Amino acid sequence: MGLFKGGLLIEVSVTSTPSGASIFLDDMNNQIGETNNVINASTGRHTIFLTKPGYLTWSSEFIVTTKSKDNKIDANLTPENSVSTTIPPSDSSIYTSSSSSSSSSIYASSSSMASSAASSGMSSSSSSAVSGMSSSSSSNASSEASTSSSSSSIYASSSSSSSSSSIIATTTTLCPDNMAPSTDGCLVTNCTQLQNIQLNTSLNYALANDIDCSDSVNWNNGAGFIPIGKDANNAFYASLNGNNHTITNLYINSTGPYTGLFGYVRGIGTINNTGLVNMNIRGKGNTGSFAGYLMYHSMHNCFATGNIHSSGTFTGGLAGNLDESYMYDSYFIGRINSTSGYVGGVTRYQDGPMERVYSAGYINAKSHIGGIADYNNWYLLADSFSASFITYTYTYAGGGVEEIYGGVSNCYWYNWTNDNATKCYYNYGGGSSDCNTINNNNGGLSYFFNTSSPPMDKWDFNKTWSKACDGKGFPPLRWQNITDVSSCKGIEIYGATNP
Fold first, then answer.
1. By percentage, how much of the chain surpasses pLDDT 70?
2. What is the pTM of this model?
3. Cβ atoms within 10 A of the Cβ of 93, count?
4. 210-494: which CATH topology?
5. Which of 50, 100, 427, 447 has the highest local Cβ count within 10 Å?
6. Burial class of residue 487 in the structure, from the number of CB atoms within 10 Å of its CB (0-12 exposed, 13-18 middle, 19+ buried)
7. Beta strand pairing status for 343-344 and 315-316?
8. In the chain, domain spans
């Protein structure tokens, strides 16, 4: 994913057992010290590598936050030529083999999570001795569903004539609701299985195909789909890989504290390669299409279209709140109506790096509105735009960002002639404020249909974004595979030209 530039430098405590391991940050050529010391790292997501002669390389992804108590890394290094591995996914089979009685290598095969141990250079973010292996699961659902059982067996083998293979440990983890395991996680094939992610919020999941949630409007006495991870104590702690699939016609009418496909998400993981098409989501506050609250997480290659209505504060097109999380290469096209305030076209609260995102549509709230984000805190917002039509009952609106404290770089907004946003930002508290105005005098709305226009000229149209709608609509993601220009999205379909 790469390191997002522009974050604050924060102290991170790095310890290991044994101590004295070399620390490399984001690149094995970038040594910055030894363990049992404090390093300085910029806020955002990083990968750390620890090396020490006689031990396997240890690595982990982590997020540096402005909350110093969270910035601690403690690693247990694994000696070479010993049998140990990470806690395996649900259906892993882990084999050790050797060409001599004194050395063994570890091979892991899995069809439930995208983690494996390589034969000679195995690295892990969490190591455990074979004899202490365990599996865990959590459940926050009130209903029951059948599960598919999948076992992990560990075999030790050697080419020595005095040694033979034997099973030395077996674990079992269950994918809920008969979901099949895969390398990306438990495979979701329908909307009922999507709902039943709530039965185990610590497993990774992946979409096996496009999901039709049209019937969710009839679920739970009008409440529809129940947000996965209802609050901070029952959060979703893992990842969802959409595998370039969409979820259509998702209906949520929630009275809970956090509303979206996911209510509350926390922990290092990612939501990626997923589209929500024609969703209809109603919440009391902390509301977004994908998540009401996203903490220590990341989102990329995602989009949402449809309608969001909130009767409380903190509402965003993709996420209600982005807390120490990273969002990039994603967009929202639709309508947001809030009978309260504090609303952003992509997210209300941006307390994490965000780049190459956009919103387009119609936003109405009482006050405190930003076309991309309402509140930009500590982190940079870069290479993004808003073409959303904004109206309010009282005051405080920014076409791009309502309040800037972290900084805005190479961002653009469309200045509609008859909405309530008259400038890119309303309040400025610090950081860069590079926000540019587009109106009918310098390109009009179609400026954003041209992929060579800034900030889109800095986007990757070879791998991530598509030029299929060039001149016809806002840029889609490449994985959407749009071949018919009638599928291109212009803002008029959500009534922004005549709200």
1. 76
2. 0.73
3. 15
4. Pectate Lyase C-like (2.160.20)
5. 50
6. middle
7. parallel
8. 9-76, 84-174, 210-494
